[in-house]
Amino acid sequence: MPAFQTYPAVAADAGVTRRVLADSPQMMVVAFDFEAGAQGKLHSHPHVQSTYVESGRFVFSLDGEEFEVGPGDSFVIPSGALHGCRCLEAGRLVDGFTPRRDDFL
After folding, report:
1. At 3, is the pLDDT very low, low, confident or very high (cuts 50, 70, 90)?
2. Smallest Cα–Cα separation from 20: which of 9, 12, 11?
3. pTM of this prediction?
């Protein structure tokens, strides 16, 4: 069994903190805490991403289309898709990435 490791929370964007919860070379789970009004800037990456809204409300942009999500909602962001979000109510997103995002370590 691999050793348990904890990671510190780090600033990701203004009003956004990121904490790696678990990782392996094949996948990674990361929590993002957002203040109301904070934004996750538009970006893309080669990883497939799943997003689960633990709390709060967000407007996501995914390849030019916008949609609103709230607690309990989840969706998948394909590899290479341009995406970002705006936080309407403070909350937490829990994202899974495959493979692992080495840039977060």
Report:
1. low
2. 9
3. 0.94
Q: What integer pLDDT is reported at residue 4 of this predicted model?
A: 72
Cα torsion at 37, 43, 63, 91 (round to 10°)?
-30
Q: What is the C-alpha to C-alpha distance for residues 75 and 78, in angstroms, rounded to an integer?
A: 10
Query: Which stretch of DSSP H or E encloses residue 4?
Result: none
Q: Dihedral sign, CA of 14, 51, 77, 56?
A: negative
Q: What mean pLDDT is reported for the chain?
A: 96
Query: Could you give the CA distance from residue 13 to residue 94 in angstroms, rounded to a whole number?
Result: 16
